[in-house]
Amino acid sequence: DIQMTQSPSTLSASVGDRVTITCRASQSISDRLAWYQQKPGKAPKLLIQRASSLESGVPSRFSGGGSGTEFTLTISSLQPDDFATYYCQQYNTYKMFGQGTKVEIK
Amino acid sequence: EVQLVESGGGLVQPGGSLRLSCTTSGFTFKNSWMSWLRQAPGQGLEWVANINADGSDKSVMDSVEGRFTISRDNTKDSLYLQMISLRAEDTAVYYCARDVKGGIFDNWGQGTMVTVSS
Q1: What's the rounded Cα separation, in Å, for the pair A30 and A7?
Q2: 3-state SS assignment for residue A80
């Protein structure tokens, strides 16, 4: 199975900060990576697919990049609504999620 | 508006059974792959099972093989997960989701809690 590793596990930041979350795959998954945002007690929300394609309605401060085994999710200017947990997910073979990155208020 | 609503969760003893349902609206269910995913308390997300549009192709994760069965009724726009021989490690919030483009989950229900405990 392809393993997905996110870093960091927790990220403390302030409103207005630029933050980047990294997701690494144990083998190449091309661009078959999605990013989700989850708030406490809520279902995950799809943000990005195919590594860099923003879903309709997702603010442009979110961006994704990478291919192969290393990927990033960047929030260009953190807003109060962005404090949440973020998961990467590969869909190249099987469907595996990273362990999540909690973005908390500094 | 796309809506998915899970039901059927609850408290069950180890070895027991439950059937989860997911009723949908706002999209063409009969043309859509669907998945069940779960999230144990305080833990990450885990894909459990999926089913193709007409129900002829199904997959489940290894740890639930032989215990969980996914099915659908396209006349009722509904998805199901039959769970037997439940174990403590199956305790989780179970979500149904629309599965697009080979494994992207673009719409999710609110989840239903399954607790396996004596």
Answers
A1: 20
A2: helix
Nearest CA in chain A to B98: A46
> Per residue, what are the HEC states of chain B?
CCEEEEECCEEECCCCCEEEEEEEECCCHHHCEEEEEEECCCCCEEEEEEECCCCCCEEECHHHCCCEEEEEECCCCEEEEEECCCCHHHCEEEEEEEEECCCEEEEECCCEEEEECC
Q: Does A98 touch chain B (CB under 8 A)?
A: yes
Task: Report residue B64's pLDDT band, with 50, 70 and 90 as the boundaries.
Answer: very high
Q: Amino acid letter at A88?
A: C
Q: How many whole angstroms separate alpha carbon A81 and alpha carbon B87? A: 37
Residues in B 84-113 with any Cβ partner in A closer than 8 A:
95, 101-111
Cβ pairs A/B, distance under 8 A: 49
Residue among B79, B95, B82 nearest B34 (CA): B79
Q: In angstroms, what CA-CA distances link A64 with A54, B34, B62, B79?
A: 8, 25, 31, 32
pLDDT at A94: 82
| Higher-scoring residue by pLDDT: A93, B67 | B67
Contact residues on chain B for A87, CB-CB shorter than 8 A: 44-45
Distance, CA of A92 to CA of A106 (rounded, Å): 35
Residue A52: what are its φ and ψ, rounded to 5°? -140, 5
